Amino acid sequence: MSERLLEAFREEVESSTPLPDFELISAAGRNRRRRRHTVVAAVTACVLGVSGLVASTYGDRPGPQPARGPDSGSLVTPFPGMDMTTLEEGVYALQPFGDPSMPELQFELPAGWNAWLGPNRYEGLDEAAPGDPRANGEALDSDPEWLLGMVVFEPQWFAQAGCTMVDLSGGDPRTIAQALVGSPRLEVVARPGPSDLSGHRGVHLRLRERAAGVDCEQDALMTTGTGVAQYLGRGTTYDARVIDIDGRPLVVWAAWTRDAPHDEVDDLLGIVDSVELVPPDPS
Fold it and tell me: Strand locations in 130-236, DSSP E?
């Protein structure tokens, strides 16, 4: 599935974006999202979901484990992952890299999003039979015009000018943000600024693929512990939150192609805004 999806996003694009203040971008639409989505009070709010955002190199993954809510009354569903299932609305929990030593991510998900490495949507998903992985796969085979999703990973190697890759394993959030800014095929949409996720500090920035890329044998934007993050083309925008988890970098990576509908992008940013970290169970 990941190979088919990657092939759907190989076009060169045209994009030119000014550099607004990131806080203005973050604030825009937040009130709209809060009005549009309501969650039962007992549900505690809390990674790309699209295989093309991070092409998995692992064939087998741990099955979903029971989610831990911040209190016993919380209703949280383990994120299924890797099964191409259309999901119901609710609060989902995802264990980054299947590593129980990392905090669990919990986030609010509107109805109709798809499961893969993380939540995602694309053109034609609404027409697919709900919960039918085969129907979802057929929708992807139709070469959708737009796609968006979120994934979480621990970054390792980064593309740099001159068609080289630099190893930043274990780098701090600021160093990793600088590496993303230095990618030869990305332009800055919103400059790096401070970010905080459940008390963990980090950096938040937004980037977009340039219209004219550099031809390199290595077409990866970065490598991760679970695969390769590719350049997607089609005017893809990347929203990155790089968080420090006790000396380990955690990236919450959201992406949307140029033609993604505004309301879908708004929903994606609402999912990202809802992310909370639940500490590992000491037992």
Answer: 147-153, 155-160, 164-167, 186-197, 200-209, 220-224, 227-230
Tell me the C-alpha distance between 185 and 130, whole Å: 37
Q: Where are the alpha helices (DSSP H) in the chain?
A: 2-7, 22-27, 30-36, 133-141, 173-181, 262-274
Residue with tokens 């420090």: 244
Q: How far is CA 69 from the centre of its chain?
A: 22
Cα–Cα dist 153/157, whole Å? 12
Spatial distance between the Cα atoms of 121 and 283, rounded to a whole number of angstroms: 36
pLDDT digits (tens, 9 = 90+) for 193-226: 999 999 999 999 999 988 765 666 666 788 887 6
Question: How many whole angstroms separate alpha carbon 92 and alpha carbon 261?
Answer: 24
The DSSP code for 54 is: S
Euclidean distance between CA atoms 144 and 22, whole angstroms:
30
pLDDT-derived band at 116 (thresholds 50, 70, 90) equals confident
Which residues, in sequence order, are bridge partners of residue 39?
none
Tokens representing residue 31 in the block: 């009130």
Nearest to 261 by CA among 91, 114, 125, 134: 125
32 vs 241, more confident: 241
Strand partners, 276: 106
* 149, two tokens: 């999703």
Q: What is the pLDDT of residues 150-160, one digit of tens each?
A: 999 888 888 88
Helices then strands (H, E): number in the chain? 6, 15
From the list 217, 238, 248, the residue with the least C-alpha distance to 155 is 248
Query: What predicted TM-score, i.e. pTM, was given to this entire model?
Result: 0.73
**What's 31's DSSP letter?**
H
